[in-house]
Structure prediction request, 347 residues.
Amino acid sequence: MKKLLLVKLSALGDVVQTLPVLAALKRVHPGLAIHWVVEEEQAELLAGHPLIERLLVFPRRRILRCLRNPRTLPRGWSLARKFLQDLRAERYDAVLDLQGLLKSALVVALARSRRRIGFANHREGSPLVLTEKLPPYDPDLHAVRRYLSAAEHLGGRPEPVEFPLPPHPSAETVGRRLRLPPPPWLVFIPATRWPTKLWPDEHWRDLAGRACALGLPLLWIGGPGDRDYLAGLALRGTDLSGRLSLKELAGILSGAAAVVSVDTGPMHLAAALGRPVVALFGPTAPWRTGPFGEGHRVLRAGLPCSPCFRRSCPEPRCMSGISPEEVLQALTETLERSRRGSPRDRR
Prediction:
């Protein structure tokens, strides 16, 4: 096999958890040309990656927005046609679908390859376009292990698990641009798309007040759409919501002494950078999508209804039941362990 098309479109955490596939394949096939299809929102993180020969950027959301409006309909068709031309400009020895949804199935079906590989229990009818169906994966297997099992089907060697990240600015460089105190920092990541994954606002404010005693500058991370939310939380520390590109986000996280986060994409990026994470989990399963590697702490309320994987809940006690006191204790212990130089080898 000389040329592979890897299809992993979104979201940030999923893209980060796919990175070990690159290392696993390149160990055995150093001459393999890997092309990656990714959506626009995550493309910057992969830009310039030394293990990716070609990055195909799928402007899916822009296409859909344009197609919904008669005035921008021609623009939408033009964007779709350009992406299709780029996709079909190459012939591949194999296409590997690690997204497993209708949107990725369309890409897989349109790519020029006789081998279309993915899991038999992928969703939304996506296995219908496959020519090689991998055995159904265990849904309780960690996502990183799931993706690596697909790489093994192509002869990849998964161990040791590595997260090869593309070049990004250093913590010091990003810190100087933003006029931050020098690293290391404490980094809090409170925002997520699922309302049920949110930790109560008063808990974050309580934790921020208690964390001042740890003697480290506090940074709050969020996207442009999180500014209003973080404005009510970041009463202590520096609010960086909407001020970082993805590569700058990697730079900031690389300078973290420790990270406290809900289940969200930047949490996975912090773990991939080897930074210790205190992760707050409620409706989702940390054994499936928790921070991968050693040295992390996962806190749960331990309710029998958790994980429920629901995006709405009238009373999400699985998150409110995690107290600021236990998060502070886990954070303090994580910092102590990090200062002692405890290893954080990948599982």
